[in-house]
Amino acid sequence: MATQKLYAGAKLREIRNRLSLTQKDFAAKLGVSLPYLNQMENNNRPVSTSVVLALAQEFGLDVTELSTGDSERLVSDMREALADPIFADAMPPLADLRLTASNAPALARAFIELHRTYRQTHERLASLDEALGREDARIQASPWEEVRDFFHYCDNYIDAVDHAAERFAARAQTDGVRGAALAALADRGITVELADIEALRQYDPATRLLRLSTRSAPQTQVFQLLLQVALLSQNSLLEATLDFARFHSEEARAIAKIGLANYFAGAALMPYGTFLETAQQTRHDLERLSTRFGASIEQVAHRLSTLQRPGAKGIPFFFVRVDQAGTITKRHSATRLQFARFGGACPLWNVHRAFETPGHFLRQLAETPDGVRYISLARDVSKTGGSFGAPVRRYAIGLGCEVRHADQLVYADNLDVSNASAYEPIGISCRICERKTCHQRSVPPLERRLTIDSDHRGTLPYEVN
């Protein structure tokens, strides 16, 4: 497979501006001519290997900052938006989308926001009788979507919160993280009580009583303790982060605060440095990591997808959680593989089959239409209600990375990663998937013309040209 050239003009300009250097001085330090630097910053030339080395040696920069992860996310989101039937045959070439994402990311995000607003307006009109007369009717992103996109474009890594959680965990080595959480709450005059309640956590600020459900698993109880610690002891940090995000509604800000508290809890339970080292030593064995850190399989998988600290990055993983209908309820990708913003995941992906084999890991070698190959791991993570008759929440999680990291994964053992025929074809969304003969295709690809022959019927009722 040909090596993908690195176009990172916008990131180069950002680094140069951050260092307060002129183009001339920056070019001199990188050992290139001024015209050559200008061409790289305008994406007329790829960033050369010598420039990458110079950035590391001259400025001590983490060269993974030049990765195209954010651009790939923007390209994926734009392609999905442009797959809307309203654009008909107006899909620009992929090269144009990549240039826009690299050179004008703010414009790309504005376009994505505009399309999202259009979709929500369209959906509101479809249920006009419900919307009429409502005082809170509005045309903007839902709070949930706004928060989801905030974490999505932060690469699911919040540096200040992650470091704060790591410092808390460092102080917890004597009594363990549960003991440290209880001590931190006790210092604030809060009593913790285990009770037979349906809610996972109940806190009464008036009586300063925190109640945790005895029906919850021990890992869940500890996580909820840490979440409460974050809300009370890290409030200033959380609020400062929220100020930076500039959410459009109080609802979005409130949801994001819970999200940040959850982030703190996960990062305190699995502190960055120790967790990364242990993950590498165990070759990312989720069960061993779960036992070592007292976390659930889902918590471990999610944490692995956040290990993107500059200068100490882990394997770029994608992580997703789906319900039984195939709807994505959590999603993040530090890889080139991106997930559909609307609707479900590709039906050929093994995450959908995890419900059929509860308690077992499913492995899959997969290839996306762009030729990138991945190893994907899937497992069900159903959650009982803790009592007879209580509803069971059924989910499946998917975790994976590019196959070039296979030697660092215990799950790749005995898989023939060099055999091209071992890779199953998967996509992102049918409307932007270019595969012509997919037997699970639900709608035609937007970028292709169709031939319909009434005298012939294959797997699909049409042929994709």
UniProtKB/TrEMBL annotation:
<keyword id="KW-0804">Transcription</keyword>
<dbReference type="Pfam" id="PF01381">
    <property type="entry name" value="HTH_3"/>
</dbReference>
<dbReference type="InterPro" id="IPR010359">
    <property type="entry name" value="IrrE_HExxH"/>
</dbReference>
<keyword id="KW-0238">DNA-binding</keyword>
<comment type="similarity">
    <text>Belongs to the short-chain fatty acyl-CoA assimilation regulator (ScfR) family.</text>
</comment>
<keyword id="KW-0805">Transcription regulation</keyword>
<dbReference type="Pfam" id="PF09856">
    <property type="entry name" value="ScfRs"/>
</dbReference>
<dbReference type="InterPro" id="IPR001387">
    <property type="entry name" value="Cro/C1-type_HTH"/>
</dbReference>
<dbReference type="GO" id="GO:0003700">
    <property type="term" value="F:DNA-binding transcription factor activity"/>
</dbReference>
<dbReference type="InterPro" id="IPR050807">
    <property type="entry name" value="TransReg_Diox_bact_type"/>
</dbReference>
<feature type="domain" description="HTH cro/C1-type">
    <location>
        <begin position="12"/>
        <end position="66"/>
    </location>
</feature>
<dbReference type="GO" id="GO:0003677">
    <property type="term" value="F:DNA binding"/>
</dbReference>
<protein>
    <submittedName>
        <fullName>DUF2083 domain-containing protein</fullName>
    </submittedName>
</protein>
<dbReference type="InterPro" id="IPR010982">
    <property type="entry name" value="Lambda_DNA-bd_dom_sf"/>
</dbReference>
<dbReference type="GO" id="GO:0005829">
    <property type="term" value="C:cytosol"/>
</dbReference>
<dbReference type="InterPro" id="IPR026281">
    <property type="entry name" value="HTH_RamB"/>
</dbReference>
<dbReference type="InterPro" id="IPR018653">
    <property type="entry name" value="ScfR_C"/>
</dbReference>
<dbReference type="Pfam" id="PF06114">
    <property type="entry name" value="Peptidase_M78"/>
</dbReference>
